[in-house]
Design a protein that fits this description.
This protein is mainly α. The chain has 4 helices and no strands. 82% of the residues lie in helices and 0% in strands.
């Protein structure tokens, strides 16, 4: 396997793990924890995919933060 392929597989695995964790946070209504996970992922230069944003928006909505959900959606579009 080439080095680039290994990097791509690692990034995909990390994104899938993040998405699973964000979904869990949404189910448990743990918005603070979800935001912390997203900040950590971005700090590590992980690019959020559409599933990451969907899970984060879902977490905001389940926690009653409609404005946060809207801002996340608008940030996703940019």
């Amino acid at each position: 396997m080439t080095d680039i392929l290994v990097i791509v597989i690692t990034v995909i695995s990390c994104t899938k793990l993040l998405n699973k964790e964000l979904n869990t946070c949404a189910l448990k209504k743990q918005l603070h924890e979800a935001k912390k996970k997203v900040r950590a992922a971005l700090k590590k230069n992980l690019i959020l995919d559409v599933h990451s944003y969907t899970n984060l928006i879902n977490c905001y909505a389940r926690c009653g933060d409609v404005r946060g959900a809207q801002q996340t959606l608008e940030g996703m579009i940019k």
